Amino acid sequence: MDNDQNELIWQRLSKALFGGDRTTDEGLFTYRVMEQVRRVESALEDVAWHRFLRWAVPMLGAGVASLILAARTPARTASPSIESAVFQLSAFDEDPLTPVLENF
Amino acid sequence: MDDPLLRNQKELIAEVLGGKVEAFGELVRAHQARVRLVCLAFLGNSTEADDAAQDAFLKAFQGLNNFKGDASFETWIIRIADNHCLDLLRTRKRHRTESLDALLEEKGDAVEGFLSRGGAADEMPLYSPPDLEFLGRLFAALPDDDREILILREIERLPYGAIADRLKCSLDAVKSRLKRSRQSLIEKCRKYF
After folding, report:
1. Cα–Cα distance between B161 and B181 in angstroms, integer?
2. Could you give the 3-state DSSP secondary structure of residue B119?
3. What is the pTM of this model?
4. Do B53 and A38 touch (CB under 8 A)?
């Protein structure tokens, strides 16, 4: 009997003291929280934008610079190996021994 | 079938993560009362409790990416508020300015007011700022052991096993301690019924 009565009292007490799921000023509280949330959000966006700029600007600069360099580079000269081959051929042609041998 | 409230929370969280920040307001509105109550129970002062509850929501917003969705958003945000209050209490003492008997003597009408509300089984009490102020004083006047277990069971609504883990004691110890704390509060308030 006593236990039942205590249980009944506890249920009412618990519900009254701990059971509230709403407050009369919930709109004001929510407004205050959202004000801070918006402030944090805009600060985070700024940070993200600055972080983006920190790597995007140098990357963009490097890209433009390579484009400019690529456009200005002169036409490629013949490869040194071809040059040496030609040189060797002409050198063979001008071999000083050939005319001597021919005249001999 | 999914709990509609839980599904709704998932949708709201997805919206916030997708950039619709205003959807977070709905989550705040839905859970602010319990979060404020948790902070109130820890700190014992409604102004400090509201500041702490705001901080907890802000932390939740900033860490929303980490919300796994295994538990409800309410369980998650209450845990954040709980940890935040414990951090605050490490740097200062809890308010304890009056005895429970003295408070009930002075504010007997407030207790009667509380108990007269929410008569219907499905009707939950709606707290006004003076109610929260009174509740803060009441929580602050509770003995530490009673307050700790009542916060975990009645406000945070943790299962016995989780309370036992938290308090590092057995399940039986949790039950007997809870019974003692409830009985003590009943005895103090019996005359108002």
Report:
1. 18
2. coil
3. 0.75
4. no
